[in-house]
What does this fold into?
Amino acid sequence: MRPDWDYLRALADDEVRATLKRLPLALRRQARLLPVVCEPRPNDQLIADGYEPDLLGLFVGNTFGDEESGCADVPPQILLFLENLWEFAEGDEQVYRDEVRTTYLHELGHYLGLDEIGLEQRGLE
It folds into this structure.
């Protein structure tokens, strides 16, 4: 059964807000400046660029501290692919919320300059 978009979006927005509240104040201030864009799935261009169709999230743009370089085509932002997250969670609301939180923190880590090893060390793989 295909999930209702408004339902998925409301759950994701709620989880991102709750996650932001739990961040340390200095990090919370930076994270609040970073838009979170929700999409059902990666678009055709992302797939053509080599991303998997079942991608859960993606950070795009310059990392924190590099915003001034103006080299990126898009402003820094986190993309969450809600239908993929829902399928990953196999329709379980709590698993979905947990994965939204983990994916958001993972992509926030990329914004802050962490690589995959740094993210793995923090349990955000």
